[in-house]
Every structure is written in structure tokens, then in C-alpha cells.
Automatic annotation (TrEMBL):
InterPro entries: MeTrfase_RsmB-F_NOP2_cat, MeTrfase_RsmB-F_NOP2_dom, NusB-like_sf, NusB_RsmB_TIM44, RCMT, RsmB/NOL1/NOP2-like_CS, SAM-dependent_MTases_sf
Protein known as: 16S rRNA methyltransferase
Lineage: Bacteria, Bacillati, Actinomycetota, Actinomycetes, Bifidobacteriales
Example of a GO MF term: RNA methyltransferase activity
Chain ranges of the SAM-dependent MTase RsmB/NOP-type domain: 273-555
Organism: Pseudoscardovia radai
Binding of S-adenosyl-L-methionine, residues: 365-371, 390, 418, 436
GO term, biological process aspect, one: regulation of DNA-templated transcription
Catalytic-site annotation from UniProt: 489 (nucleophile)
Amino acid sequence: MTEPHDGFAHGGAGNDGGKHDGGKHDGSRHSAPRRGSGRPGRGRGAHRGVAPHDATPRDTPRNNPRVVAYDILTDVLAKDAYANLLTPRLLSGRDMPERNRAFATDLVYGTLRWMRLLDAIVAAAAKRPREAIDGATLTVLRLGAYQSLFLGVPDHAAVSQSVSLARRRVGAHAGGFVNAVMHRVVARGLKEWQSIVTSRIPRDHAAERLGVRWSHPDWIVQALDASWRASGYDDAAWRHVAEGADGAAEGAAPGAAPRATSDVALGSAIDALLERDNEPPSVTLVARPGLVTRDEIIAALPHTAQHELGLWSPYALRVHGVTPERLAAVRGHRAGVEDEGSQLAALALAACPLDGPDTAWLDMCAGPGGKTALLASIAAGRHATVTANEPTHHRADLVRENVSALPDGVIDDVLELDGRMLGQMFPGRFDRVLVDAPCSGLGALRRRPEARWRKDEADLTALTQLQLGLLESALRAVRPGGVVAYVTCSPALPETTQIVDAALEGHPEAERCDATAVLHGVNPGIPLPARPGDVQLFGHVHDTDQMFISLLRRTA
Ligand SMILES: C[S@@+](CC[C@H](N)C(=O)[O-])C[C@H]1O[C@@H](n2cnc3c(N)ncnc32)[C@H](O)[C@@H]1O
């Protein structure tokens, strides 16, 4: 079999990063509103940078990035493998230039993230339902459509390489069909396809329209939309963040109120929120206070790395082009990899005003110990100690490892208990308690490309009894006057405000504090809800994971 000319492995797709297609390419790509922080390698055109120029070894199934990506996708989709574990493992040891590895990785992650939209486009181009296309051919077409519509691979390469892949992995019979469908796919740009496939969905099925356009399941669209609506942000908050970057979300006139439809606010912040969920996060480090400074980390970065200070946390440093585990500060646990949302959650607990003694802190759900280490490094400067608790043994070991750079005595103990027992075991013992509760993880979808397709609606309520039990236990373990932070990496209301409301209902001795005021004390520039109370962080506003932070005080 003769491999059609790629135009890619020989550098043909990467130089100008676009299609010379007479305006077909609409420049819409999958970039989201972002602060003008100049994050390198991100956003519009970023992926085009992966087009390989390196000398390429002879093309074989083992080193062809499209074949490798196809094989990984097949395992992820058929065998429930995790893309972020499988991809580096399968790519290691292959005779591939670095840029081809990056291309294969991008193909896998991007195709998984955008799978619902890609399927709709492929089905429309094939003029048959997705279910009528066999799984292997569908995967080839998803990859082909992703290359064409998101990576700017030239039409001839996207088509011919998809045909070649189909012949290699599906069989010679599939070549003609893939050729015909891919020709139709590449004839239009992304925005045009988004309009075509969403226009086929009835207008009052707003969640489905958004779900297809931004490639999320309907129930997640609804959960995120409900959270955004309840979060108390002025709709201008995200527009403000978007200014100076890519502009407001499509369909939203600047300054216009969101158009409410049957079940979601179409053309509003929810577009930006969902779009942002499709962007891989940057790597953020935390410089643990008292152990290392950001300047010291910056000084030790390799010349090839780029960095910028975090947006909100005084300890956050965003880095690019460096493997964090290779940094001495990270290896020595003086720094760690920690999203700014997580840093803000720990900082909010530490910053909440308190009368009386402030020496005993508890981290009730500590594994793997990111927040414990940040809390403990702050505690060390205030002569307080931290008790960590994590019932899963290997995660408790990770906590021990994460806090190993702290001075002796700062960590009082690392317990391995069910957090729900701690209230009874240590009533009124602690001044500050963190409950970073196990949750659905709906706030970190951008980190695991396939996660959104593996979760279901039941996940939103699966852990609510445990979450409530942990928060109630924390309210017993804290002393009168002390504070509890209830935190989740999920914005879904059943796991966030509804848990806090239920706990307060059963505990008249506790009250909600104003987390917005506390966080503004941490950094007055953080965009926060216009009303006092709990804080829900959002990717499209804060460029963080979507952490929920509630602060409660025990009054009696
Ligand atoms: C969201 S994670 C915590 C992340 C951690 N705080 C950090 O920043 O690295 C939730 C943790 O709660 C733990 N967990 C699960 N059930 C628990 C229980 N009954 N009591 C206490 N912790 C529990 C899980 O094992 C998991 O490590």
C-alpha cells in the first residue's frame, strides 16, 4: 500500500497554520475567552504549532501519529482506558519525533473532548445516523474531522490520511466511504458545521443544542448552567474576563442580558463556560510559603520553559514547556502542582477571621495532600499544627510524602479514618477544619478528556450522603467560634450549596460566613459574586478548576 502524501510529517501543515481555502476556515477554532496573559502555546492557532518538521523515520503503524492515535482512542472507547495514562505509555519508546508525539496526543485528547460535535458533523456529512456507521470507521472519521476543523491540517492531507488510516485499520472496503465523507467534511469550516448541526435540533431543546455545539452531555450542560445561574455573578463578570482576548461568546451581544430559553440561557456565559471546558489547563505550581518562593522556582526553570505568575493566588506560578517533576523544588515537595482554584480553597480557610486560639487545624479529606501541604506551610508560619486524615492508605502515604519538606511538628498526625468519625472522636478540638469532599469531579472535566462521557446524572447525588456526613462531622470537630471550609471540585448544586443548606438546617449552632469577603481579602482582583456568601469558581471567569468554597462558623 502506498501512503498518500501527508503534507504533515514533512512539515506541510504547520508553517502558516491555516488552510488556503478561500475563506472557508472561519478562525473559530476551540479557543475560549481568556485573560490576555499571553499564555504561550495556547489558544488560537496553538495546536498548529505541533505540525512536525523533524526528520521523520520511515512511516510504520508504530510511528505514524494517526495510527497511534487511532489505537489509543479505540482502547479508551472500547476498554474504558484513561487517555491521560495510556497516551504517554503507548507513545514512550516509539521511534517518533517529538512533534509527532505532540500531534498524536493532541489528536487523542481533542477528538475525545469534541466527540459529540464531531459525531454530529460526521453523521451530517455521511447523510446517515451515527449509529449506522461502524465504530472503527467512525473513529477514523472523528480523527479526520478533528484534524481538518480544529488543527488546520490541509484538506488533501486530512482526506488522504484518513483514507489511508481506514485502509490500515478498518480494511480496504472502508476507503471509498471515508473518502466521500471526508471530502464533505473539509468543504466547510467549524462554525458553519456548528450552525448546521445545531440548526437541526429544535430551538426549545436548548441543552441539546449547547451540548452538541460544545460537545457535552445534555445533563452536564444543565448542571453547569444551573450552577452558573445560582452562583450570583453579574453576567458581565465573564465578559470582563473575555475582553482583550477572543471577545464575547458567540451569539452574545456585548452587554446584552442572556436570552432565557426553556432550560438554559442560550448565547450567554454558558457558551463561554462550556467552550472553556474543552481547553486543556495550563500547569500551575504552588510555591509553598516558607519552603520556596516563586522567584526561586523561576530561577531554576530550564531556558526552554516559559512562565507567568498566577492570576489570583500569591503562591501560584503557571509554567509551560517543563515537566514539573523534573524541578528540584517539586521533587523536594517545597512546591507542588496545584490548580489555583485548589490553592484559593486552602487560602480561604486560612484567611477566614477567627477570635480566640488558632493553633489546631484539621484537613478531613486530605489525600493526596495538595491542600494539606499548602495549609501546613501557612500553619507553620503561624505556630499552628495540622492534623490530616485520609482513609485510603496509599493516598494517606501520598499526604505524608507531600508534607515531608515541612518542619517537624507542623503535621500533628496523618490519620487513616472515615472522616465521619472525627466529630465524635474529637468534639470541639479544632480551630479550622477543611472538608475537601469526594465529589463527581464535574469541575475538572478539562483535565480528563473522556471523563464527561463516562459520568452520568446519578454521579451528582451518589456522594451527597457522604458529603453531608463529612460536613456535619466537621461542624462537631470544630470549636465554637471556629471555622469550617466545605469545598468540592464540582459546581453541581446537589453537591455544593444544597449540602451546605442541609447541614445548616440540622445545625443551628453554625452559620454561613461571607466567603466572597474572605477571598477578596486574599486578592481584591478576583472576580466574585455580587452577593455575600459561597463562592463558585468557573473556568471561563477564573481560568481555574470549578471549585466551590463555602465557609461556615460554629457560633455555639
Ligand atoms: C477531593 S479529594 C481530596 C483532595 C485533597 N484535599 C488535595 O487537595 O489533595 C477527596 C478525598 O476524600 C477521601 N475520602 C473518601 N471518603 C472519605 C471519608 N469517608 N472520610 C474522609 N475522606 C474520605 C478520598 O479518598 C479523597 O482522597
